[in-house]
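Structure tokens please, single chain.
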Amino acid sequence: MSRIGKLPVALPAGVTVAFEEGVITVKGPKGVLTQKVTGDIDVKVNGAEAEVIKTSEAEGTDAKHGLYRALLHNMVVGVSEGYTISLNVNGVGWKVAKSGNKIVLNVGFSHPVEFSEPAGVTFACPSDKEITVSGIDKTVVGQTAANIRKIRIPEPYHGYGISYKGEVIERKEGKTGGKGKK
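Here you go.
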């Protein structure tokens, strides 16, 4: 039996969960999220908590039990609090700015790079060296932040690149500058 799947999901005030025809629908103050459920899984709502239940002992049901419980929890947190990921831009003369519904990155290329907001995600630029990606769907927010980071992955010699806030970039020493062998 899945240890994660056995745990109930607490529902904050203003959040409702419905399970009909294999689809979980979570409504909250920030929006609505849906998730299709496959396999022998059922969702029951008991007052202020929701429970994911296995309906059979078929192979693979334990894994799906834990998966759908985790997805349900992420949906509840998303519609009640939302998710935010911060990125730092580090490089000489590098900067970022928001322009309408996209961000414009000047990150060492011969041209600025424009990145548009996908549906359900908003960008903010608190400074010219920071990007904030926000939304209610954890997977979309995480994938969008990863796609922005992929534009310029941090390099290990100077630390230039786009990195997650708090990410530790392991630095390399570089050339020693010693004289050649005789």
